[in-house]
Amino acid sequence: MSKLLLGLVWAIVAACVIFIVALPINLQTHLIAGAIVLTMMMTLKLLRPGGTWRLIALALGTAIVLRYVYWRTTSTIPPVSQLENFIPGLLLYLAEMYSVFMLALSLFIVARPLPSRAASPIDDADLPFVDVFIPSYNEEPALLADTIAAAKAMDYPQDRLTVWLLDDGGTVQKRNAVNIIEAQAAGERHEELKQLCADLGANYLTRERNEHAKAGNLNNGLANSTGQLVAVFDADHAPARSFLRETVGYFTEDPRLFLVQTPHFFLNPDPLERNLKTFDTMPSENEMFYGIIQRGLDKWNASFFCGSAAVLRREALEETDGFSGISITEDCETAVELHSRGWNSVYVDKPLIAGLQPATFASFIGQRSRWAQGMMQILRFRFPPLKRGLSLPQRLCYMSSTLFWLFPFPRTIFLFAPLFYLFFDLQIFTASGGEFLAYTLSYMVVNLMMQNYLYGRFRWPWISELYEYIQTVHLLPAVVSVILNPRKPTFKVTAKDESITVSRLSELSRPFFVIFAVLLVGVAVSAWRIYAEPWKSDVTLVVGGWNLLNLILAGCALGVVSERRQRTATRRVKVNRRCEFGHDGLWLPAMIEDVSVNGARIKVHGRKASELIALGQASLRFAPLSGGEPAVLPVNIRNSEKEGDGIAVGCQYARSAPEHHRAVADLIFANADQWTEFQQSRRRNLGVVVGTLWFLRLALFQTWRGLVYLVRGSGRSPEKTQSSMPSGARA
Amino acid sequence: MRVVLVTLLTALGLAAASAQPAPFDMTPERPAVEEAAPVPDMSEDDPRPAPTEQTQNPVPQETTPPSDVRRYLLPDGNIQLFGESSMRSWAVNLTAAQARAPARLHLRYRNAVVVAPEASRLQVLFNDVVVIDESTQSAADFATLDIEIPDDLLQAGRNEMTVRIRQRHRTDCTVQSTYELWTEIEADGTFMSFADPAASTYSSFGDLRALSADAQGQTRITIVAPAMDRNDMGADILRLAQAIALHSVQPNLAFSVAATFDQNPDRQALRVLLGSADELSSLTESALPAGATLGPVAAFMAANGDGFPTLVVSGRNRQDWQAAIEQMLGPVDRPPGTRRDALITEPWRLPNAPMVYDRRSLSFGDLGIRSTQFSGRRFTADFQFAIPPDFYAGSYGEARLLLDAAFAATVKPGSLINVYVNDNIAASLPLTSRNGAIYRQLPVKVTMRHFRPGLNQIRLEAELLTEQDEACLPGAPASDTPRFAIFDTSRFVVPDFGRIAQWPNLGAIGGTGYPYGLGSTPVALVIERDDPASLSAAANVLARVAIVSGRPVAFTLTTSADAAREQDAIFVGAINGIPAGVIAQVGVTEESRTAWMPAAGRSNASGETRVDIDDWSQQIQGSRFIAWIRDVETWFSETFGITPEMLRFVPRSQAAFVPRQDDAFLAVQGANPGNSGVWTVFTAPDGGTLAKGSAVLSKHGMWEKLAGRIATLKTDMETVAIEPASSTSFKQTLAASFTNYRLIAANWLSANILSYSLLLVLACILLGVATSALLSRLGRRR
Q1: Counting C-beta atoms within 10 Å of the first and last residue's C-beta, which end of chain A has fewer, N or C?
Q2: Cβ atoms of A267 and A355 closer than 8 Å
Q3: Contacts of residue B776 in chain A, CB cutoff 8 Å?
Q4: Nearest residue on chain A to B775, judged by CA atoms?
Q5: A606: pLDDT confidence band, cut at 50, 70 and 90?
Q6: How does pLDDT run across A623-644, given as a tens digit for each residue?
Q7: Exposure class string for B112-121: b at 16+ Cβ within 10 A, else e
Q8: Please, what are the domains in chain A?
């Protein structure tokens, strides 16, 4: 009852705000009221109050955005009598309205994200049986070994934990392929993995035919197992020891719970982070999603399955005959279906797995194309806004998640809209320079502030725009194609384990340079028009400024597609763990400073260290976090240098036995807290002003870098520059 | 009274004389209403032969046989037509006798020296038939044209007269140079002469509409009421004055009320005799109209005594003449509460101004602008419309012009179409394309900031730049190649606007006589009884209020302010004749009763053009860079002009007004003591100034300047100073509706920016709190 009353009060207040906003006040009033609102927002932001104050600041921002919408709708659309202006004008208008609508949805979702919470502990005897599925298609056995070892090492009663390697690379169909070489490779893979699983204590499972891609593979796993819960890890996502302890408890609290999802934490940078060198300082792209959006979705019981790092309930999955496979994003689709059947989901805001993400720009785009196309398919086949069984908040949440992927359209329109004016003199936005400045500027500033307010710690200013832009160029055709042929896209496994041995331009870089050149011409045209056509310099200035903004973004993107050479594909994680260094009875005390998937850096004390180092080979001995016998891990010594009273040694793992994989897994994956710490270290809110300046500097530098790569690359033939090494040969 | 009129005449004469030399006038960029008028659709065509013989030789006015009956044609004095093309139309009402009689048209004009005779033409049309089509070549002195008007051209009743001019500069091709082009038509020499003496006589009171202004553009009317000293006739006289005003609808009426004939009468358009047949027959030797001894009569005397048309309103007794007045009012009354289609302006300006009460779309054709093509540099066209007195959208409102127009390919980008509302720039639309342009229903936003109740004028000015003009080869100024066209399918679109009456707001009475013309309840009219000066002044004021309201004002005459405490009231009188407490109530200091002594003879009526640095700086162009900087400055101040006054929560309290030495006549408005109605006070230091000031202020063109809380007419009898109202009360005029309240709120909040900001912030805070409360109850909380 009080809820209803409160809802009524809220509706009345909201109607009042809309009434005030939709008053046809004059320009001065808007300008001054806008300035006052902005000042208030800034003050609130500086004081960083939480709770209600945060919502007040958001309400203030919403008011300015709505004023912009009102003005934009009532007085800026070109007259229908001028079709050449009206059509692009309407497109631009729709693109802007889409952005505002998405902003509204995100406001709803992240209005008050759920804080982190702890699952209730359960007695070992009451723990459910868990099957761990590690679906694989073409990943290297070494990588799989780490993941399987980490999964096996999870803190959970061993009799209640079964690890399954679901191999789709060694199916009967593949082994009997017409292509003899492929068939042979599949056969070898089949045997090798079978052995690996046997060594590591996991179950190997493959199937007849590669039907329904990942969903089919998982369903095959379901059909062959019996545990009450199913944990899914991608082949490159290794869980921490605490994974199941942190997640399983929720299932006993809520019998209608079908999913506990945890964030994806990546040990390697994505191409943008690598090429812009922001991985260590700036929050990753997916942190906005896992850091705040999933928490927001969780508030509305709408956090969804992201394909990996999650635990699901078999009973729920059986209700829908397993994972849904109509779309190529089976994860989200499954979640929509189960949510609509009244099942609940929970999101745990703590990185409990560490994985790899696409390293090259091309595979990054491949992955995003799959997501975009899959979400479009869900929109087409499941249409969450009208799906029966979903609650209203859930519908809005899924609407946001799926409609988000339409961003290539508005982004393209924003990119080219100024050029309509600059090149063809079309007036697609009827406003004087003054109105444009007063309304659009206040809207843009408010928009930046709101983004910063909502996501400040997780996303720095202009980075969303940059990510959207770099994806747009190649995602637009992908989205158009899936809209035209919704059933055509097929599941393609994303390659995540490439490394870049030579600095080069991405094979997908050409359009970015073309666009950059066109925008650059646009800037020249604006300058010329301001000089030559003084009678409309106000509008030209504004449109030229907009084009310049696009150019800055496009320039920064040149840096993103200029692939930087990088030796280690994965990040080193600081561990500071005691160990012993040596072999055969000679063990020196040492400290493991940091580790990566491929090697470690240790600090050795003692005079005899240099002798050992001279040998080139040694072993590390340490007590595993999972307990038990000390683990011994052979290493090759790559380099060493004297450092204070010890010697710093860089070494590479020489894994030959299953226990070596267990040791590596224990070193890097066992402790999830170190990932949290690392993430926290990047989560700083730069603020709009500093963030913008920082971005400007970054963009200038990256533009220059992109152009240098272009000049250098033009001397070489493109084939040579496109050599990427498979991950097995991790240098 | 006579002194007043003589002074007035002298002043006007001086003004006319001083206008003689080619005016070096930097101001015509924003010409006054009568100066510029729109465009002849055919002035670019080959001149059609005029249908009648033309007398090229200047005919001295004196040679006109004195026996001829003259009917002056210009409604309000000399007409000046500026620019490359200009036009003005108005209605000329003729009696049946005048229409029948053979008539000649006399026209006297001169033009600027720089007007090229071969490329310039002056046309006069009656009922759309060209009667004069001359090349203008009278730079040296006035030229007089004397033309026979074709027999069947004129009709009894309404005729349309149009003066149209096309002028080109002799040497210059700049837009600036077009401001030097003018042609002046002199009122004194422009008239119809009728050979038939019957043309000078009027018969029924319906012929009142054939009244014409004199050579000075004034219509002087004397009301003689012999019994006014004995009877309390004030109310009858004032109703009669309104009846006459509504029948004749002259731009400049001046009434004088007297008990006896003036022995040396000034020239006057009409003399009215009011009284019983007995009283009147002792007054005049001429025969009264038949029936005056039998019952109510309102008719003209057969012969014009002293040469003036004389209207007799009479009967056996007072009841009879009152009935006669009612009989006169019958045809011109309008039931209270009915809407008007238009504000009548046709005696001085055609077409009538359509009333725009709410959302309305008017085509240029309806507004009197025809499809026109134009070959000069500066095209102007204007139209008028009227809005109701409770207009309340000045702070936020935007009307739109939907232009159908075309620019030839020769016109360079950067050419402008400027839109002026009541001579204030309201929009500027640059041509941005290089190869000409065709606009179809191109929207141009026109701010309503300068709209005012009643009559409004919108002027379009297209400034056309071409390469040809930059080169300016000989003959170029006269080129006939069309550069610009505007079509009568263009529209003027007014959206729904906020409507609520405000007081004090003299603009409402200036525009449509609000609230006195509503007529639902009689207005209290407080005057000094039987004082001819007060009566004349009241007649002037009421006549004008009646004309702008389009109906007679119902009033009750009283001398006590107490009777008007809870009413709408008008006070007319010398400052000492105004009842005690009234002037303080409307916000004028009581000391002004003794302290207000206007400095006589300090008038600024010499007609000297005021020199203003802003006008100069607008004309003188600096270097391109400087000009650009200035453009940016102007743009910024025009776009974001934010004054400290806008950033005020509470309006400044207004000190009581003290009249200054150069104030001759005051119109003041305030709330009545019960704050239930409007009191308007018209006052002057003495009776003479009161009559004269009221006559001047009630002229068309002056009356519309009324605005704000106080309007003062300066001693030069030309300048009106406005004291704006800092705080106003509102009175609902329409049935309560959400849409109207919304628009009213929009306007009020646009004028009170801080209040808007506060409201918005408060609403947002509430929304934040409500959202917070709601969120803690919706969805998961943990």
Answers
A1: N
A2: yes
A3: 112
A4: A112
A5: confident
A6: 888 777 888 899 998 888 888 7
A7: bebbbbebbb
A8: 124-268+298-358 (3.90.550.10), 573-681 (2.40.10.220)
